[in-house]
Design brief:
This protein has a four-stranded antiparallel β-sheet with strand order 2-3-1-4, with helices on one face. The radius of gyration is 19 Å and the shape is elongated. The chain is built from four helices and six strands. The longest helix is centred in the first third of the chain and has 17 residues, at 2-18. The chain is of the alpha+beta class.
Length: 136
């Protein structure tokens, strides 16, 4: 019985710590935009690393029902859940239309995650206007 409880507790700890990192996917229209946006995201420390996957074909239906096919670049953004809102804001301020689809990372190398985390900023505390103090 004790080993079963310990296994459940260990599983909870591993699961809780596994959601410290997230993969975000965004698309952009060309190589120059992919480079510019990726460099901006990394320099603002909103992601630890970004992979640019070139020449991905996007097929979708427009609002008028017309079927479209376009070449896009996919940004595979390695970040933290606490930075997602800032990252989305950055993308909206720098691109006409995009969003970020995110997936929690549930496994990986601890040394790699430590390397990744060292390249990202700590989240900005949200100030409570009624107290003038950051929420913790």
């Amino acid at each position: 019985m004790k080993s079963a409880i310990l296994l459940v507790l260990l599983s909870f700890v591993v699961a809780a710590s596994a959601v410290d990192h997230t993969i975000g996917l965004a698309t952009v229209c060309d190589d120059a935009t992919a480079e510019k946006i990726s460099a901006g995201i990394v320099s603002h420390q909103l992601a630890g690393e970004i992979h640019i996957i070139p020449n991905v074909k996007s097929i979708y239906r427009q609002n008028d029902g017309q079927l479209m096919s376009r070449q896009r670049q996919v940004l595979l953004v390695k970040t933290r859940p606490v930075l997602i809102d800032e990252l989305k804001t950055y993308l909206r301020q720098n691109l006409d239309l995009t969003d970020l689809v995110t997936f929690d990372i549930t496994g990986g190398s601890k040394p790699y995650f430590e390397w990744l985390q060292a390249r990202m900023k700590e989240p900005t505390p949200i100030k409570d206007p009624s107290h003038g103090e950051p929420d913790m």
